[in-house]
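Following up on my earlier thread - several people asked me to post the actual chain instead of describing it. Fair enough. Here it is, all 719 residues.
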Amino acid sequence: MKKAIIALGLLLSLNSTAQQPPKAPASPVSDNYFGTTIVDKYRNLENLKNEETLNWMKAQANYTNAVLNSIPGKQKIIDKLVELDARRAEKISSLTILENGKYFYLKTTPKDIVAKLYMKNNAKDVETLIFNPETYVANSKEVHSIGLFSANKKGNLVAINVNKNGGEMAEMIIVDVLKKEILPEKIDKIKFSPAAWLKDDKSFMYVQAISGDIHNMASQSDLNTKIHKLGTDISTDRLFFSRASALGLINADEIPLAGADIENNNLMFIPMSVNRNLKIYVADSKEIDLEKKNWKLLIDRDQEIKTYFVHNKQMYFYTSLNAKNFKLCRTSYENPDYKNAKEIIAENKNAKLESITTTKNGIFYTVNFNGLETKLYYTDFEGNNIKEIITPKKAATIGMRSRGDKYNDLWITIAGWISPSETYKYDSNKNEFKREELSTVVSYPEFENFEVKEITVKSHDGVLVPMSLIHKKGLAKDGKTPVLFYGYGSYGMSMTPSFNVQHLLWVEKGGILAIAHVRGGGELGEKWHLDGKKATKPNTWKDVIACTEYMINEGYTNATKTAIYSRSAGGIFVGRAITERPDLYAVAIPGVGSMNTVRGEKTPNGPANIAEFGTMEKESEAKALIEMDSYLNLKEGEKYPATLTTAGFNDPRIIVWQPAKFAARMLEVNTSNKPSLLKVDYEAGHFGGATKAKSYEEIADVFSFALWQVGHPEFQPLN
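Reply from S.P.:
Thanks for posting it. Predicted structure:
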């Protein structure tokens, strides 16, 4: 009883002291795009050096945190996540197996704040701790974590990208594995890539930004690839490649990345963007010291090649050209002839060729049937002797890993929406699988009464959209069940079945988790992606609107019980669904979302996204960007759902002012009297905070806010 009184007092205290800050300062700017005038009322919020802007964001963050922390039930979600984590003695991720059999991997135990790097000489060896980011800087208030790592061929040296506070601008360190010592040389402003070790095993390439300011356009557009030799001063590192080196081979919306293909004796230059169709130039590795290299175009974007591998001087490429469900073809690596390439794995008109890996014995590949089931197949390098490999269990998703075409080793990981992942090693000689886990095997009895339904919903134009429903068995269609709509719909990325204990907590609380496989994603092949891109982007949010209407019409729920949530480019999925049909949703949560697409290319990550969303420099694409802009589509006097808009101040991908502008406008125009909150996290980047505690808090914020707004009795504030 005493605890209840204390909790009530704390709750009342928070609600009485947390006052909604003033609305954002506005300084409207008018732009004319091909005859269309756009008024951007909060353009001033883009100035992140303006004290008034920064103070407003900070005040909103403080108020939002006070509100979220006053929601009963939030701490119980955090406690549950901690309890679930404690069941697993260790969690292994980012496993790398070298040719010599050494294992490098990240491991997290329940007591760890962040993951640590370990090494084994083989699968049965005793592990050795290589690097602990928690002790990297003594008595530091910053949170350091491992972003990427790369061991050299021998495995006696490992380069580690150390991130700070969830950001992506890293510092690279080199660890002597045998001595377990950090070498003196440290490299700052590392972007995107791990170290690429060269043939001498003592030198490597790395990618470095010109500017360390993540809000500076040059921090992404102007990257330098340099070469470092161990034992030398960083200041003497040789510039290998830069934007200036490209000599007209790179567009303004592409990022200059370069490296080396050691196995095939080639240097590589890759103009990067979000376009999944590769564009790659190569040069002879003998030219590594030449200032001007003879770059030869190996792959162009019109070949629609997503990935490739080389075996016996033959290039095997995975393409969507004339094959929207993908196929695998082969041509000469040194003199490619794509028009006359040999087809190795033909397109399946009724299923999607999903992933490919190689071993010494041949090619293993997975095929996904309508998002419901994935099967494993084998073929030799000529495309003959195709056969299905029967997996230990029926699989919704199959992940594969091998050590390349010199070894027989193949591992598969099977997963499903309500089935924890299981890893097996395949013995091709015996055609047998053996369970092989590095992570602790955990049971989740609280999820055993869940079930999955895979359905299709007719969208606005008659197209059938897949939707995965996860709920407790025996669900009654009484129209009162809270439903959380989750989706993405960009870049051709698929929402494949995976076991996510955080998301399953929504179901544990009695709700339905509805994963809408909307257009713009890749669930049904390349055409599905193209039908939710640029001018066809409205299909993304119209598909989830159709899914929402279906769930209401079929008696699962009603508009006072619906929540919609996504992150990043999924901000379009959320933002435009609620701006087009605000009447359908009780609550919306766009996390670090792309909310102001018209201004997107004015951010460091914007130009690289032109391939997916478009540019304001072209009339047809400008029209599409205006249409998908959630901020600009907010209307005066409309009754919008409750919103929790989140942003990471250290986010280089969706700059903080995009969500902030959306939240500012929502606060101004919303007449529903429902809360419109903005949470700016000053210790997080695009992928959230660096620690487990941060990730638990983030999902607890999302679910407690949503459950509050859909009327769940455990989450109703007393005041």
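Residues 50-83+473-710 form a domain with the Rossmann fold fold (CATH 3.40.50.1820). That should answer part of your original question.
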